[in-house]
Amino acid sequence: MFEIRSYLPTEIVFGPGKLERLPELLERHGLSGKALIVTGRSSTKKTGLLYRVQELLKKAGVESIVFDKVIPNPISTHVDEAAELARRENVDFVVGLGGGSAIDSAKAIAMTAKSGGKYWDYVPAVGGGKKPSGALPIVAIPTTHGTGTEADPYAVITNPETKEKQGIGYDVLFPKFSIVDPEVMVTLPQNQTVYTSMDAFYHSIEAFLNVRAQPYSDVLALDSMRRVVTYLPIAYENLQDLEARTQLAWASTEAGITETLTGVIANHALEHGLSGFYPEVPHGLGLCILGPYLFEYILDHAYERLAIVGREVFGVYESNDRKAAELAVKKLRDFQSLFGVNKKLRELGVKEEDIPKMAETAYRMMKGVIDVTPGNLSVEDLEEIYRRAY
User: Fold this and answer.
1) Residue 117, C-beta contacts closer than 8 angstroms, at least 6 positions apart
2) pTM of the predicted model as reported, rounded to 2 decimal places
3) Which of 91, 135, 273, 338 is such that its CA lies 20 to 30 A from the CA of 355?
């Protein structure tokens, strides 16, 4: 038995060259006045993309200001600072321009600016469960093919003081529209090409293993995984390959929809525990390190679905489901070895004495995704998975 809730209010405009449609889309959605562009510290400036977006906004008669302090694991103090800027400048809508960190930040800023207070007031695990009254309209322009945040109602922010990293999910965080233009992704460096693509892969495989998995999400998840496995090696060898970028961008958007329909499982909790304590660790890398250990740990409870992944994604020829599942995890590690992401936590500078606190924080902050993981995991289980990955 399964249940499906499908609410996807975002207009997704996908394809090479679609960024040029920004003025038309603003008019169609009734967005005008002043925009706050939320972006990272350097990449959109180096590529000229920030200037290009400002010019397209100007063409639509929209004034813009820029908040460019976003870091790879975005922090709540920056969200609060930018929300205050948005209120002070009477901003009408927010544009997230960049990777998942920029777009997640844009969502959080839009919500906090409209609803008042501090961002952390709206984090259920620690903020008292305050519900936002609304959000400024959000436009998403991703420059990476990984997070899928252009197609979901989630944002992930870290509290730098407590090292707590948690995603929030409210319907007001859905973008009004998202422009997914693979042409703006060809400047992604090799390491970010891998990290973001594998982020999409893990969104999909985790949705597929989720105890609430359902047919709509399954179709997208399997297709997304196949695209990553097929096209990431091509993009890795030729960063300018637009066909590969397009396929990976669609894999990411599909994966974002699976997050909305079904959601991730404990691998994301484990990674949030890791990068909350060690924010220099790229999210996609953390997922790659921890994922195979999680799948091995829950194999008794997930082997039937892992066997499907093995056969349909990695081409495993094995009739026995358990053996096919074991081969799926092996094939995943083999695939990751092509890109040098099968590391140990100790190689990242993680201190063994931090593991119990990481596990406790991951469990407390992300219990919702742990509860939908096969195997009824406890905080002690999370600690053991960290130790196996150490």
Assistant:
1) 130
2) 0.96
3) 338
